[in-house]
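Researcher: Good morning. I'm working through a list of sequences from a screen, and I'd like to move beyond sequence-only analysis. For each chain I'm collecting a predicted structure so we can compare shapes side by side. This is the next one on the list. No need for commentary yet; just the structure.
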Amino acid sequence: MFIYSLRASSIKFVGAVALSVAALIALVALVPRTEARDAAPVEAQGVEYVYSGIKTDEDRVKFLAQFGITVEPTALSSEEIKIPDTFDKVYVGYNEIQRAQGLDLTKYKNKKVMRYTYRVTGYEGYDGEVLANLIVCRDKVIGGDVCSSDVNGFVHGFANHG
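Model: Good morning. Structure tokens for this chain:
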């Protein structure tokens, strides 16, 4: 017959190790995916578009050119914005535009990002002012749109331009 005894310090040690392993597993499960996965090109309608490595005006102009959108070479504005923690009706609708083009702003809730606005040149079928907005986080386009500056105008994703 074998008798094995545990001291309180042994039980505390095993408990601490078990708690640490559980915390590590929970942390791995809850941490968002890394930039390496996010840096992959997004495929839309059989064409791959590159959304990463967007650092300068020139990079942003080239990004839009992938979709056949020509813009003036410098941004009209650039500003830091915060994606809200809770989406209202407007953000839910705007995120639907993003999801239709393979993007999703919900991953960036409560984060500060940059919005760059460019004037579109030569938009077919529309004579008014057309703007392209890019939402960028860590040199990666995470959202954006093409829209008219008219109150009753239009807004759509990058690939749906006239």
